[in-house]
Structure formats: structure tokens, C-alpha cells
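Quick one, C-alpha cells below:
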């Protein structure tokens, strides 16, 4: 990406004869010379940075704190172990974030009855109220981002993103068999409205 935020086209390697198929040619025609990830990652990164700025300004939450709060809110309740797999932070950062949120009265940490060493995390009523306000902020941001894009395009993009994500997880599991447990921990989830 260049300084203006535009993607820069990759330069072809001299003498490289890539193994191309008809599908490769069709993909290049549809996407230009960009890899799919080079289109999606800048969007995701920009939206994450925007959310971090908004949540810091409006709610005094760090990136780690709002990510933890959102994941617990989405799950309803979740074990520390499963949360650590989802959040992709080292356990020290996660522990500090949880300690901060618990001290603010936003997260409840309870030991599981059957496995007393395993913590189950949930939102307190104050945490749930904050999570609801955060979701409203996210919906407003989403509305601004997508307001003039045709619904048919949005439905197509959503289907594409879901399919590509499922395939990427399958590829990850093939590359690293232990990733199966990391990619989708068993958590109780609530229906999402946003």
C-alpha cells in the first residue's frame, strides 16, 4: 500500500514462469494482480484501527480490552482457554486485560465447577450494558461505511467472505493439524443482531 492508501501493484519477477491455470487468468482478470488477501487485509486493518480510536475515545477501552469485551459478549460465557485461542494474545496480555476489566466491574471471572482450575468468563450487567453501547457504535460505523453500496453487492460480499474464511480455516487445518482446535473453540454463542 502506498502513502495515499492505494494498493500498489506488485512488480512481476524477471524470468519467473508461474504455474498458471485458466482459473488463475480469470482471477487475475477479476482482481487485477492483487492477491485476495491484499484486498481484504487493508480493509480489516483500517476498520480495526477506526474501532480502536472510537472505543478509546468513547469508552476508555484499549484495543485489548474492547476485543476481550466483544468476544465475551458474543459468546455469553467462555473459558479462559477458549478465549485465549480466539484472541491470539499471549496469556500474560490476556490476563492483564481481564484483570483490568474485572477491576472496572465489566467482567466476571468464576471457576468452573467440574474443573476448578478452569475460569469461565462472562460480562457483568455493567459490562453487558457497555457491550450493547459498543455494538450500537459498531452499527453506526457499519452504516456509514456501507450506506450507498447496493444490497445485492453486500450480500455477495458477505457470502464471499464467509466462504473464503471457511476455506482459509480448512487450509490452516491441513497445514497445521493442531490448528483445528485453535480455529473454532467450542463456545456457547448468542445470536448476533449486528
Amino acid at each position: 500500500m502506498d502513502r495515499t492508501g492505494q494498493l500498489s501493484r506488485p512488480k512481476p519477477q524477471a524470468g519467473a514462469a508461474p504455474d498458471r491455470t485458466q482459473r488463475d487468468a480469470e482471477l487475475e482478470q477479476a482482481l487485477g494482480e492483487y492477491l485476495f488477501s491484499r484486498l481484504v487485509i487493508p480493509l480489516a486493518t483500517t476498520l480495526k484501527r477506526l474501532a480502536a480510536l472510537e472505543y478509546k475515545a468513547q469508552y476508555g477501552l484499549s484495543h485489548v480490552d474492547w476485543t476481550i469485551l466483544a468476544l465475551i459478549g458474543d459468546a455469553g460465557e467462555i473459558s479462559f482457554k477458549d478465549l485465549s485461542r480466539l484472541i491470539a494474545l499471549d496469556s500474560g496480555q490476556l490476563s492483564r486485560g481481564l484483570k483490568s476489566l474485572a477491576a472496572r466491574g465489566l467482567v466476571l471471572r468464576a471457576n468452573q465447577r467440574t474443573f476448578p482450575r478452569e475460569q469461565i468468563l462472562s460480562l457483568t450487567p455493567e459490562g453487558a450494558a457497555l457491550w450493547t453501547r459498543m455494538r450500537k457504535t459498531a452499527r453506526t460505523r457499519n452504516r456509514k461505511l456501507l450506506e450507498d453500496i447496493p444490497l445485492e453487492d453486500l450480500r455477495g460480499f458477505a457470502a464471499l467472505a464467509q466462504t473464503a474464511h471457511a476455506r482459509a480455516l480448512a487450509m490452516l487445518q491441513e497445514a497445521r493439524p493442531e490448528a483445528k482446535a485453535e480455529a473454532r473453540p467450542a463456545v456457547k454463542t448468542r445470536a448476533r443482531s449486528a
